[in-house]
Description:
Blueprint: H1 7-10, H2 16-29, E1 35-36, H3 48-58, H4 73-87, E2 97-100, H5 103-114, E3 120-125, H6 130-137, E4 141-146, H7 162-167, E5 168-174, H8 186-199, E6 202-206, H9 228-231, E7 232-237, E8 250-254, H10 256-269, H11 275-286, H12 290-311, E9 325-329, H13 336-347, E10 349-350, E11 352-353, E12 364-368, H14 373-386
Parallel strand pairs: 1-10, 3-4, 3-5, 5-6, 6-7
Antiparallel strand pairs: 2-8, 7-8, 9-12, 11-12
Bound molecules: pyridoxal-5'-phosphate.
Amino acid sequence: MKFTEAQRIQNLPPYLFARIERQIQKKRAEGVDVISLGIGDPDMPTPVHVIEELYKEAKNPANHQYPSSVGMIDFRRVVADWYGKRFGVQLDPQTEVVSLIGSKEGIAHISWCYLDPGDTILVPDPAYPVYAGGAILAGAEPYYMPLTAERGFMPNLADIPTAVAKKAKLMFLNYPNNPTGAVATEEFFREVVAFARENEILVCHDAPYTEVAFDGYKPISFLQIPGAKDVGIEFHSVSKTYNMTGWRIGWAAGHPDVVEALGRLKSNLDSGQFQALQYAAMAALTGPQDVVEKNNNIYQERRDILVDGLNAIGWKLEKPKATIYIWAPVPSGYTSESLTELVLEKAGVVITPGTGYGPNGAEYFRMSLTLPTGRLREAIERIKKNVGKVEF
Ligand SMILES: *Cc1c(COP(=O)(O)O)cnc(C)c1O
């Protein structure tokens, strides 16, 4: 029997990393020792005290029943306290925080709460693919805001045609940014608040990398901008901060109506996250924080090895202030696709083509800092030997 897929799923582009994964498998089958700077998934382990908390709470029968779909009040209180301490942002844990099964879950679902078929959503280009993916599933049409190096990868809101701005219901932003590694200025966020007010747009700020930063830099939260809570929400999680991507727990915080709508949708879709896991996330947020600095020092060293190593052979990489990514222009004569293919073929090194994050990524590639220094040095050696100098 043949089944006709719904239009909404036919319209979904294949998830970028599924294709890259196939290419890696093929190379490995040919006996190549592939070094993947592709997917950005922290390679260091979750802190031991977090794992211990999961053990302990997993043994408590009180945690074996359905959790609340919006998260335990204790979990939401810990998130609110963390926002207070880290950003000076006051949140009501009862009404302004909802737990998520990883922030990706909420990012994909928020579109279902606010977008009807034919509605417009503002999405950065390049961007994490889930913003447009969730919107397309809801039948909405993304309007892409180009991110350019000249503007520090912050969109020029003045370039958005008035008719589009008036029609748009939702806007996604993400700083520190994946894939560009860019950070936002307070001034830009202030512009966003004014723009959202003026055009009645819900701002969804995705902020999983606020704790992954270098050289003493401390990224800001969108919610610390005056008026931000009135126009938007912020998504965050323990995934990148505490090496917990596999655990699947995050949250959305901000405007109470939006938090309530997301919670209402979720109560019809899922039953929240395992309570023992919520306790573990609380342990991460309230326990010793030295792990965060340790991680950042490791990422910073890797960043410096990659950037300095490739620049030494004439590449043009810049050091990001935050995130686990390096975003760099492709040499002249190459496209992001042809460069990635060349580097994989000749050096057995996987880098991600910028096009995977939107058409505006066509002249860029991305590298992740999620491999130990030895492997990064090996990758540089192979690129040096087999790809060599390139022209920009
Ligand atoms: C990793 C990542 C996420 C997803 O994080 P989870 O909380 O693990 O779902 C969301 N947005 C961006 C930009 C990311 O890079």
